[in-house]
Amino acid sequence: MAREHADSKDALCKVGALRVLATLLSHESKQVQLNSCATLYAITCAGRAVCKQLAGYGVLPRLCQLVNPGLGRSAQDDQLQLFAALLVVNLLHVRGLTTKGDRIEIYNVLQRAYDDTVETQVRDTIALGLRRLKKLDTRKSIMKTELRRRAKSLAKDAGILRQTKPTIDPAGQGLSAMAAG
User: Fold this and answer.
1) DSSP-derived pairing of the beta strands 164-168 and 175-179
2) pLDDT tens digits for 5-14?
3) Of the candidates 36, 113, 100, which has an alpha carbon nearest to the alpha carbon of residue 69?
């Protein structure tokens, strides 16, 4: 179901809807916030690339605020909390989005949303995000992240080498690095 309507989600991303919807998360009207949050959640179900693009707009702090609506809650606040929590869980799949301090805060925010909701499917999704946060702080995860960073750095440094392709020399003298161009 997450990949449903992929064409329309891609079309929305191409016309810049993510940026507009991200700014609407701070709108004065709760209904506008709710509609933009629900739409962003649906769009981010299209995959990690969309989540990465949305994360680039710096929406995570605002979403954490929306997950904790405060005193005097209405049904609309509950819905907003729900979609904001689900959107945070989707954004957790973007590598390098959070620091250790951020993860502690996000964990507490998601734990509150988990405690507040009664729907099983929503609780399961939020629990997935909580497990993801715990996993990000394991030694194995930290080592994998550092290895990826180093591998990217090495690949970047060796970028010149990727521009050449080994081929057989027409004279029959073996391999030679000839320009791939």
Assistant:
1) antiparallel
2) 677 777 777 7
3) 113
